[in-house]
Amino acid sequence: MISGGADQTLRVWAADSGESTAVLEGPISPVNSAAWSPSGQLVASSSDDGAIRLWEPSSWEPRSTILGHLDWVNALAWSPDGRQMAGAIKDGTVRLWNAGSGATDATLQGLPGAALSVAWSPDGGWIAAGSEGGAVQIWDAAGASIAQFSGLGAASAAISWQPSADPAAVALADAGGWRLWPAPFDAEPGLISAGFAAAITSMAWSPAGDQLALGGDEGAVWLQASQGGAPVSLLGHADRITAVAWSPDGGLLASASMDGTVRLWDAAEGSARAVLEAHPNGVLAVGWSPDGGLLATSGPDGLVRVWSAGGELLASLQVHRSQAQAIGWSPDGARLAVGSRDGVVHVWGIVQP
Fold first, then answer.
1. Counting Cβ atoms within 10 Å, is residue 318 exposed (0-12), middle (13-18) or buried (19+)?
2. Which of 263, 332, 335, 345 is found 20 to 30 A from 192 (Cα to Cα)?
3. Helix/strand/coil (H, E, C) string of 66-129?
4. Once rounded to an integer, what is the mean pLDDT over residues 173-202?
């Protein structure tokens, strides 16, 4: 598993013993994201010093360090073919980098505030980014600006591309609701649902693209069909939802909250399957293994916990002196990467139960 924290290193850990097997030097400030390439042959990490670092898991030697931007990288996303990375920069730009050479392919401009989120469409043809001030911008894969929609009421800048949609379509969080914006983005995104009792803090499409899960800042979770209709309310959390994540088969939804719990919901029945007492000071990140057999969680306590799909605690690893805030499974499910505010990224090898 990879984890990140403030001793300015990236660490490699063995999951069976919980001991560090390598220390990867590089970051000099908090790690904001750690993301595997689609092939699993590279790990990209970003940090507050503005640097992007690419690591080769075969040796854990750094392939390259990408500089040239002086502000925080708030989010990082690989293109579906693994040839490029997109970074959401605090200065309001989105940068595209060549994963092979580390060169900047394009600097995308137009957002009115700091870029907070970025995501590629599933076919790789479009890039969407959300910003402070409630704006979402769309560019094509070559970096040409296509459209912008402003005035969204959600401070989270949450965006999520709908899987298998034809044409491509992206969901946008709005004040108390959400919008769907289909290609070619030449019309205002349609308001699919409004009137939720809280601001939207997170969203994620089901693997089939037929349902959208939304989390609110007061602890509610909703499920809604892609074309609208009455949302199903999933109640039980007592504080802000930090993340929602679908199991790969779409049967379960995990919701993480600052109330310290993760709830596993049966998506078909809308009922709670299990309540995980995960991290007492709140849960910051949650992620399913690619086969859906394991769930990883992390929190401000610096712990990373691994659970079965049924909610049984399998491992609890103390790896950080500060909050562990980003989780990413390798495509084969054999390794888990976690980044933290103390500047370290840890990688564990995962032994399936």
1. exposed
2. 263
3. ECCCCCCEEEEEECCCCCEEEEEECCCCEEEEECCCCCEEEEECCCCCCEEEEEECCCCCEEEE
4. 89
Give which of 306, 303, 337 is closest to 321, Cα–Cα. Answer: 303
Q: Let me know: does 178 contact 212? Beta carbons within 8 Å.
A: yes
φ, ψ dihedrals at 288, nearest 5°:
-85, 145
pLDDT for 253 beyond 70 = yes
Q: Which residue has the higher pLDDT, 69 or 291?
A: 291
pLDDT value for 301: 87
Q: Residues 161, 208: contact at Cβ < 8 Å? A: no
Using CA atoms, how far apart are residues 69 and 14, in angstroms rounded to an integer?
34
pLDDT at res. 348: 77
Contacts with 230 (C-beta within 8 Å, 6 or more apart), sequence order: none
DSSP 102: -
Residue 193 has pLDDT above 90, yes or no: no
d(C-alpha 266, C-alpha 274), whole Å: 9
Tell me the mean pLDDT in the region 294-301. 92
Q: Which two tokens stand for residue 201?
A: 């803090």
Please answer whether residues 233 and 196 qualify as being in contact, where contact means their C-beta atoms are separated by less than 8 angstroms.
no
Rounded to two decimals, what is the model's pTM? 0.89
CB 323 within 8 Å of CB 332: no
Percent of the chain past pLDDT 70, that is, above it, reads: 84
Q: Hey, which residues does 156 pair with through a beta bridge?
A: none
Helix (H, G, I), strand (E, B) or coil at 227: coil
Q: How many percent of the chain have pLDDT more than 90?
A: 56
Q: Write phi, then psi, for 246 (nearest 5 degrees).
A: -90, 145
Give the model's pLDDT for residue 303.
Answer: 86
Facing residues of 303 across strands? Answer: 318
Cα-Cα-Cα-Cα dihedral sign, residues 184, 187, 189, 193: negative
CA dihedral 95, 142, 103, 53 (to 10 degrees): 50
Q: How far is CA 174 from CA 151, 155, 296, in A?
A: 9, 8, 29
The pLDDT tens digits of the residues spanning 208-223 come to 999 999 999 999 999 9
Task: Name residue 296's beta-bridge partners.
Answer: 287, 306
Q: How is residue 169 written in tokens?
A: 């379509």
